[in-house]
Design goal:
Elements: H1 4-17, E1 25-28, E2 31-36, E3 48-53, E4 57-63, E5 76-87, E6 94-99, E7 113-115, E8 118-119, E9 133-136, E10 147-151, H2 153-160, E11 169-173, E12 180-184, E13 196-200, E14 211-212, E15 229-234, E16 237-239, E17 244-251, E18 258-262, E19 268-270, E20 275-278, E21 284-293, E22 299-309, E23 318-320, E24 330-332
Parallel strand pairs: 16-22
Antiparallel strand pairs: 1-13, 2-4, 3-4, 3-12, 4-11, 5-10, 5-12, 5-13, 6-9, 6-11, 7-8, 9-14, 15-17, 17-20, 18-21, 19-20, 21-22, 23-24
């Protein structure tokens, strides 16, 4: 006979797997702003941010931070936006969510600027042209106080496992849409109406019939052309048989980056993520070519020099007889190791 404790444990386990369960964590946005093509708009200190897609375009940018328990990869993630006002009209009634490729500053972000006096490469935001996800707007979304839930699971997991840098997300309507939506921002008086990210672990959110396959949508705009560079940390010198470790990192381009190398010392391997590790087997000065490729398929090559020296002799110092009886021999230190010339 099963014990009451076993039965209760089983009931809890089953309940956690039921769709529609409550999220384990709720994150509130730490920054949000409106990017307005007319140069105006509420910016980042207004209690709402706006979406419009007609001649006067408005887009929203939001940022969530992942700390403590929120760094653990979730099984599902839902972006919840609450309407202040919504007028879903006739054309192209859906919301697109895109991954931002550069950081923004809430106080100074605009259609032109991303951070202070630093400008977007593409006015209106530097984002991946292909949406992460999209959600239809329906008549039920008309008015205020309506929760708009959008499944953003792939993007959030990419942020949590650091496969993608977290610069935030951009929310927009299709260009040409005559819909007008105002969402509550993080400055809204009602805390429950502020933008939230719901994280699920094991449990599943209710299936959203209004979600759309992102693959059915066309790209919006073009991929920003960013100037890419490479940074490094760790070793540039090593010894035969010793441990070697260096790290190469991309910056300025579109992450995540991939790395390849030619001309490496024997015994060293460069991972696709930029870690160079191993134990060199042959001395010499190696001129290595490293190719770094961003997710936009743009590549650059960099030359690095790696100096591998012979391991110092491990023999005991030679004893020299000074000729005197009873005198202790003098120990002569070994000659210092020299780099092997190519």
């Amino acid at each position: 006979m099963n014990s009451p404790v076993f039965a209760l444990t089983a009931l809890i386990a089953v309940t956690l797997q039921l769709p529609g369960a409550e999220p384990a964590l709720k994150l509130t946005s730490v920054a949000d702003a409106t990017l307005s093509s007319n140069g105006g708009g509420p910016g980042g200190t207004h209690p709402s941010f706006r979406l419009m897609g007609d001649a006067e375009k408005h887009r929203g940018v939001l940022l969530f931070e992942f700390k403590d328990n929120a760094t653990r990869p979730c099984t599902a993630a839902v972006l919840r936006l609450t309407t202040d006002k919504c007028w879903p009209n006739t054309k192209l009634q859906h919301i697109r969510v895109h991954r931002l490729l550069r950081p923004f500053d809430e106080k100074t972000a605009s259609w032109i600027n991303c951070v202070h006096q630093d400008q977007w490469i593409n006015p209106g935001g530097d984002f991946d042209p292909m949406p992460v996800c999209a959600r239809r707007l329906t008549k039920d979304d008309n008015g205020g106080g309506k929760a708009i839930d959008i499944d953003v699971t792939p993007l959030v997991i990419g942020w949590q496992n650091k496969a993608l840098p977290n610069y935030g997300l951009l929310v927009t309507l299709e260009d040409g849409s005559d819909t007008n939506v105002h969402f509550h921002s993080r400055e809204a008086q009602d805390e429950s109406a502020r933008p939230q990210l719901h994280l699920y672990y094991g449990a599943a959110p209710a299936k959203n019939p209004d979600m759309m396959a992102a693959s059915t949508l066309k790209p919006m705009g073009t991929m920003p052309q960013l100037k890419m560079d490479m940074m490094s940390s760790g070793d540039s010198r090593g010894t035969v048989g010793g441990k070697f470790s260096a790290k190469y990192m991309g910056r300025g381009g579109i992450a995540p980056y991939g790395f390849k190398a030619t001309g490496l010392p024997d015994g060293l391997t460069l991972a696709d993520t930029g870690e160079l590790t191993g134990s060199p087997t042959k001395a010499g000065v190696y001129n290595v070519t490293i190719t770094i490729t961003g997710s936009d398929k743009k590549s650059i090559t960099k030359k690095v020099s790696i100096d591998i020296q012979e391991k110092a002799a491990d023999a005991k110092p030679a004893e020299v007889d000074l000729g005197g009886k009873g005198d202790k021999p003098e120990k002569k230190p070994p000659a210092p190791a020299k780099p092997v010339e190519e």
